[in-house]
Amino acid sequence: MRWILAMIALLGGLPPAAADRPVRGVAEVAVTRPAAGAREPDRADDEGGTRTLRTALEQAAKAHLDAQARLEASRKRQSELALRLKRAETDIAALTARVGVVAREAYRRGRITGPMLLLAARDRAEFLRRTAGLETIAALDDARLRDLRAARAEARRARAAIDDEVREQARQVEIQAARRRDAERALAAAGGGAPGGFVDADSPAAEPAPRTAGGAWPDESCTVADPTTRGCVTPRTLHAMRQARADGFRRFVSCYRPSGGGEHPRGRACDFAAARDGFEDVNASGDDREYGDRLAAYLVHNADELGVLYVIWYRQIWMPGNGWRSYSGRGSPSATHTNHVHLSLY
């Protein structure tokens, strides 16, 4: 039913009120069509730069996000291990106190041996009771000692595991630093790299896209119908489109295209027009520029929730770990990303 509504909306069959309703569904992404004569996104635009640059940036961004997910998972395991160690240390303290009481009493009064207790029995019934009592005491002592040894062994294991997690975290931090350096070198070789950026601390918060149990981004392929074209997108791409639209960014969007480089043919990228009526062959200015600035800041603000690889807008690129850097394309406003915001997702 949603697919039918989306097609009706694309054909202009829904009333304006329905078209403007901010519901979270497929139709919400594609109800705005470019005006007659407005340009579609430049099909020759491969997200700017060369294929070598794009490959380097994609690999650096993915490796950074993978390392970040492993780092967070390691920190979570370390927290769980710290709780295990605390419980083990509490058990050790309690068991040590119990064993100490017995040891102190034995030292103060002298250890009462089994034969002494049995010889002091006045009759057979008392002899049997004392025999059973000795067996109970022995069992309790053995249990306390076993528990104490087990608690100490658990504490040793927890400490060793915490040490392993600390080393793992240091390794992932170094991987992230290396990937940042890779991206910086690639951008510098292409003539970019100077800091810049679009930031808005008041950007709305998007709902997080699903992750694996370990906190990583699951592998996704182009399996979902793209409501902006006749192609396909990944579930995460569709989620990002829906979130952006629900948070007020409702101008024309185009995602899948079958040819060219970059993420578009994989269904992992979208171009968000800055102009109200579609992709215009001019540099955005005024309200259109302000819209693009806000959208770029929104996507960056929610990068962790949406799984953002990079955002390109107005000759600048944002990547996780590197922040905003200059990214000077050549040619039309589409090639320089001055008429649309480009989003690539993991």
Automatic annotation (TrEMBL):
Residue stretches making up the ARB-07466-like C-terminal domain: 230-338
Location of region: Disordered: 186-221
Annotated InterPro entries: ARB_07466-like_C
Signal peptide: 1-19
Top-rank taxon, per record: Bacteria
Keywords annotated in UniProt: Coiled coil, Signal
Residue ranges of coiled coil: 57-98
A UniProt-annotated Pfam family: VldE
Protein name in UniProt: ARB-07466-like C-terminal domain-containing protein
Organism: Catenuloplanes atrovinosus
